Structure formats: C-alpha cells, structure tokens
Amino acid sequence: MLRRAVAPLLMACLMAAGCTGEPAGSPELKVGGAFGARPTIAFPDGRPAAGLQVDELATGKGARLRQDDVAIVQYTAHVWDGGKNRLVDSSFNRGAPAAFPVGRLLPGLDRALQGRTVGSRVIAAIPPDQGFGPNPPTGVQPADELFYVVDILGAHPKGASIDGRGGSLAGVRVTGGARPRLTVPATAPPARFAAKVLDRGAGRRTRAGQLVVVQYAGAVWSRRRVFDTTWTTGQPKAFRIGDGTVIKAWDQALVGVPAGSRVLMIVPPAYGYGAPGHPAYGIKGSDTLVFVVDVLAAY
C-alpha cells in the first residue's frame, strides 16, 4: 500500500524439499562467495537435469521457515538455458535484501525454502512447471528453467509483534499491547507533519536504504477509520525506507529509529500521497492520514 516503486521482478507471480546430493543436479555447477554476499556462479555446459533440483550449501542455526513467514533474503535468479544463463533478477542490484512471503512464491521456490533455517544458503534449479507457468514476467519465457541462489537472513512469522506502550499525539490515541488500536479525534487535523516514538526499542537504529519489517495500521483523519492494517492478518510487511520507495512521512519518521520501536505519525497530504491521493483506499488529495508503525527489524 505504501510503496511508490515497482516490486522485484521475480516476486510478481510468486512448499520443503531435501538436498539432492548434487548441487542443482550437476557436479560441475559451482557457486562461490560468502553468505550474504553476491554469489559467483559457474554454470556447466548444457541445461539442468529434469525436475526440481535443490541443495543447501550452508546450513544456518536460526529459526526454521514456515508457511506464512516473511523471509528476508539476498538472492540472485538466472535463466539456465545452457547458453548465456542470463541474470534476470537480483536483490544485490537493488542494494537491499528482499522479502519473500513463504507459501506465496513460485511453487519450486516455496518447496526449496520451506523448512530451511535462517543463516542457510539454498540453491534451486526450477523447471518451467514449477516456475511462472504460462504468464511469466518480462525477460522470462514460459519454457525457461530458472536457477536461484538464496541466502536466508531472517524470518518473521505471522503474528510477530512488539508488546509496546501506547500514547498520544495531536489528540490521536494509541493503545498499548501487541495489537494497538488507533482513535482519531473529531477535530480538524493539524497542518504540519508530526511523529512520536511511543516505545523506543533496544535494537540497532534503522538507516536510509534499509529494508524494515513492520506491523502497521493507517487511518484517514476525516473518516476516523482505519483503511489499512497488517494486524488483521498478522503477517508483517517489509518496505525499504529513506529512498522514496515509501511515502515521505515514513522516510522522515522511521529512519534512525531503533528496531523494536513503536512510532505514531500524523501525515498531511504533502507527506502522504499528495494531490493524486490513493483512490484504491478512498484517500483524497486533501486527506490527512494517521499511522502507527511497529518496527520489528531492519536489514
């Protein structure tokens, strides 16, 4: 809802498999580089073996990925065609990790990642019938074999939360607890942007360009009603901050806040969606918004 930028290419269409014993079906395939760093890949001649091929090159000791988790990853994705084996997507090219919603990825990628642990490097050769199917994104053909290298940096389960304090700002009240509630007063909204840290976390401070994992709720002041919230489903979302990907208010309020914090903000139009508003949510160009955001983590 808050994004101003296009989602990563290979997330456009997005279950657990054991190791195959051979890296992605070929003893000649070589993947190098440190965990969390851009991998080097030397493809063998020819195309991969038939079927889904999965291997785990490094095994982490963190939490195990489960259905509905939000996995934070660094990854590269190639078309493995036995020729140029071209790169079609990479989190490294965007300068920040990506968020993978486990259970809603490509079928082959879901099978490769579910059950893996944080700290693991997983490689997967994915056949067309477990990839994008008949409607792939630009740059990928329906018959293309895909090859992923995925480093699992973090996992955030459904229901992840901060049991934080409540508070108030400009008459807006927020309750405490793991699932805060917003109450907007029946008065005119303030003209200026304002933000307040209601509960300051103990984690590292967020930096511009990082991916932050959050739970949040947003309300339109004039309607005094929530228009969007992650707490309904409990599944966190991830956004990059400080680079214009999200609305200006989030960039202003969330950069420099320690992970584990709860932030309340009052968002006049110039700090939100501006004159166009956001018709899909019924937000007009003149609407002031209110957000409460729990910053679960930053990468």
From TrEMBL:
<dbReference type="InterPro" id="IPR046357">
    <property type="entry name" value="PPIase_dom_sf"/>
</dbReference>
<feature type="domain" description="PPIase FKBP-type">
    <location>
        <begin position="209"/>
        <end position="299"/>
    </location>
</feature>
<keyword id="KW-0697">Rotamase</keyword>
<comment type="similarity">
    <text>Belongs to the FKBP-type PPIase family.</text>
</comment>
<keyword id="KW-0732">Signal</keyword>
<dbReference type="InterPro" id="IPR001179">
    <property type="entry name" value="PPIase_FKBP_dom"/>
</dbReference>
<keyword id="KW-0413">Isomerase</keyword>
<dbReference type="Pfam" id="PF00254">
    <property type="entry name" value="FKBP_C"/>
</dbReference>
<protein>
    <recommendedName>
        <fullName>Peptidyl-prolyl cis-trans isomerase</fullName>
        <ecNumber>5.2.1.8</ecNumber>
    </recommendedName>
</protein>
<feature type="signal peptide">
    <location>
        <begin position="1"/>
        <end position="16"/>
    </location>
</feature>
<dbReference type="GO" id="GO:0003755">
    <property type="term" value="F:peptidyl-prolyl cis-trans isomerase activity"/>
</dbReference>
<feature type="domain" description="PPIase FKBP-type">
    <location>
        <begin position="68"/>
        <end position="156"/>
    </location>
</feature>
